[in-house]
Amino acid sequence: LISNISKIDRYNQYFLLSIRHARFPEVDISPDFQYELIEIPAAFNPYLNVIRDKFALRNIISQYNLDIVHFTSPLELKLHFDLGKYNNSSVLTLYDLTPLFYGDLIFRKKRRLLKPLFYALLRDIKKAGHIVSISQNTKNDLIEKLKIPGEKITVTHLAADDCFRYIDDEYYLKEIKNKYNLPDEFIMYLGGFSPHKNLKSLLEAMVLLHVEYRLDTPLIIAGKKDSFFIPELEKRIWDLQLTERIHFPGFIPAVDLPAVYNLASVFV
To answer: What pTM, to 2 d.p., does this model score?
Structure first.
């Protein structure tokens, strides 16, 4: 986001907030981009970060007379977040309201603590001056579930990283194919194993492909198998007699993902 804004904006001045002593990410910034890095002191106790951030942000907005403050995640709002008179100057990017619909699955551990925190966060979301949602579906949820006016929400889809591009290096593609023991043709899934990802329906779709269309293209389910849902998923694969068509290559690092996407027949 910073890199691309720096390429198109020569007029506005930006202040980038970072925790002191935290490693600032390597970002390709245009040389004539006007910005200043502001470091917020690190709290000696992580539980005090909420208090630290609340007062630090208010002071920064007031001191620098900021026109807009952008939060790239609701998690940055922490608990009982409130910028007071500066609330209308805030813009929040929101990805989804998954915990609202699947809270019992997501908050399986520490449910008594995390669920109240999440609902406190929902109250704070309403205080943002404007919300950027990454899908029309999320916007609809915000309107329906949180009663936030539609004119207060802008849908902006997320962009793919520059590394995701067409690759025509056959030798390199073959190297990646052998590295993960991938078949010549395959359907690729990448997106976590939690029940709300609905992998059960994906497995049933694989059965339909065979029964109704005589297609036996293998399914690659990529990702680290560390979910509580894995045993249940593997049992479902066995029950549906899909063990020969479902492959788990494990965790695939970001550097190899573009090649795997290129090798896939289709991504689901």
So the answer is: 0.80
